[in-house]
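Illustration 12: thioredoxin-disulfide reductase (NADPH).
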Amino acid sequence: MVKELFSSLGVECNILELDQVDDGANVQEVLSEITNQRTVPNIFVNKIHMGGCDRTFQAHQSGLLQKLLQEDSTYDYDLIVIGGGSGGLACAQEAAILGKKVMVLDFVVPSPQGTSWGLGGTCVNVGCVPKKLMHQAALLGQALSDSRKFGWEYNQQVKHNWEIMTEAIQNHIGSLNWSYRLSLREKTVAYVNSYGEFVKHHKIKATNGKGQETCYTAAKFVIATGERPRYLGIQGDKEYCITSDDLFSLPYCPGKTLVVGASYVALECAGFLAGVGLDVTVMVRSILLRGFDQEMAEKVGSYMEQHGVKFLRKFIPVMVQQLEKGSPGKLKVVAKSTEGPETIEGIYNTVLLAIGRDSSTRKIGLEKIGVKINEKSGKIPVNDMEQTNVPYVYAVGDVLEGKLELTPVAIQAGKLLARRLFGGRLEKCDYINVPTTVFTPLEYGCCGLSEEKAIEVHKKENLEVYHTLFWPLEWTVAGRDNNTCYAKIICNKFDNNRVIGFHILGPNAGEVTQGFAAAMKCGLTKQLLDDTIGIHPTCGEVFTTLEITKSSGLDISQKGC
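Figure caption equivalent — predicted structure in token form:
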């Protein structure tokens, strides 16, 4: 049927009959690896994998096949990337290095409060980078407090200046924005500060800030539009509340702040705001850090509570009302219980919403070219090659359905995608055992499975959990909590006690976790940890001396270094 279709279109095609060649089985195996398709016919049109018979006929009926049959040279670009964040830029630059003609479209729609930013996406402008710098500001405040115990004497009252901090951070971000633009220019990637929207197959409309429209065509497209913060949909939320889009460039100190949400964004922001001396309350609908290990999540929350952050559990806001204008002003928040009719009111200077993020996929014309999205979440389903249901359209980063929303993941996926499309490479992005860290006042690093997920996948009786509390040496002289930091590993007893979950709550958790993540990629076992000699005195060394199992019920509190 496929042969007849191409014949009827007057298209010459090369046919390899696998059952008629000596190495047919090997070819089939490589095809399966490249396409994730085990059946035949397996059809490629101008180097783009079309699929099998059904998908080819569907493409013919929609007009897509005819478009793909045109020579690539008929397009303006080999690749257009929609979105200039971490994943999009990585993909675009790698494709350009491989000799392709590439364009990046990037346009930041201002937040309801009017905040926008430069090239680089969420991580650089309103995510990881400013978050870590503000976290550092809070840690320096704690270090100042600790320093007296180490002999540092100072008499003047120490206070924090929000404006100086934000100006310094924004200056750094500005330098990063410039370096990204410079890097694109050096690699001859066309950067257009316009909003991209598909108008038909292989054609996109770019609208700039003045409303001027220009159309471009490309052989292939990569969607890397990322996500934006979600709003509550209640009276006063978009008018008076801010999100992480606004916080890091806020020109005034936020004052007494209500943080709504229990995501890592919520807890990180609440942590550093409290760390620079502000009155902070976190309003939590249900659990902390959904998707993370819940024992660790509760320990994160407990530490924050012990160090001044207030928590309102089982409440959701129903109205935000402005009482006074100002910088900051004064807001009244009405909230209701999730468990009954109770309502409460509170007065705050700033309300920060951190209740989740929505994919930026609904207003870019995907429906016009038939790209499927999850209607509920807006996420884009892809195969293990980051390819959508439309063969010439790919996606990377936070818009992917069922994948981790992390900057290094997007960068890795973007680079590898470009290498597969244009460099003849086969490597796919490995989404297993990806490490991450939550930069709360006491950092939480993890890699692999949470304890809940490990039990769900492997059953509790097949697991052994080793754990301990520990006391960082730096905390001893400072007189800080001696049984707060915590480490645990989850091992599969029937796979050579392989470490399938790694968790640490303590200072510099990100630095510690990064090293052990490489070991987990190499198949780390409990015995290998035991055989490793620790560096003393460090926090990371506790993983080389773990002896107590949860199942033993023995005391894990620490009394010495």
